């Protein structure tokens, strides 16, 4: 059907819905699939208050942007199981769609994308940060 977007993963969550799922479900896992540079220089979600840790697996490499060929293997190495609810977060909610799709194809049926990601899309002034995880005042830290 033309013009119909078929979702090939469990769905999209707002940052607050993602936090609520992480808080309510002991088998919910947050995977930050941004680059190491983004984790180091922009900040990362902090799940300490929930007694959880964020899993960090790059979806694409930096600086070349090539797909991470070991993505699914690295999810498995991090302990992610097919039965887990896996919530993928990137900068603005685009790369995490691909990550959720690949996880779904690998057998993780409950793979979700966080809308607006960690920092959101560019605003009218070409700045990020007015939407997303940080703008939702969810816990995060910067090194």
UniProtKB/TrEMBL annotation:
SMART domains: RHOD (SM00450). Coiled coil: none annotated. Pfam families: Rhodanese. It comes from the Bacteria. Residues 24-130 form the Rhodanese domain. InterPro entries: Rhodanese-like_dom, Rhodanese-like_dom_sf, STR4-like. PANTHER family: RHODANESE-LIKE DOMAIN-CONTAINING PROTEIN 4, CHLOROPLASTIC. This is Rhodanese-like domain-containing protein.
């Amino acid at each position: 059907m033309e013009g119909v977007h078929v979702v090939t993963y469990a769905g999209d969550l707002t940052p607050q819905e993602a936090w609520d799922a992480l808080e309510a479900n002991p088998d919910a896992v947050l995977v930050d699939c941004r680059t190491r540079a983004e984790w180091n220089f922009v900040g990362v979600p902090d799940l300490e208050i929930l007694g959880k840790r964020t899993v960090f697996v790059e979806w694409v490499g930096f600086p070349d942007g090539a797909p991470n060929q070991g993505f699914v293997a690295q999810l498995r190495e991090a302990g992610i199981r097919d039965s887990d609810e896996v919530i993928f977060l990137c900068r603005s909610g685009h790369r995490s769609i691909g990550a959720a799709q690949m996880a779904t194809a690998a057998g993780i049926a409950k793979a979700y994308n966080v809308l607006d990601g960690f920092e959101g899309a560019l605003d009218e002034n070409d700045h990020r940060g007015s939407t997303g995880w940080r703008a939702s005042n969810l816990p995060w830290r910067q090194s």
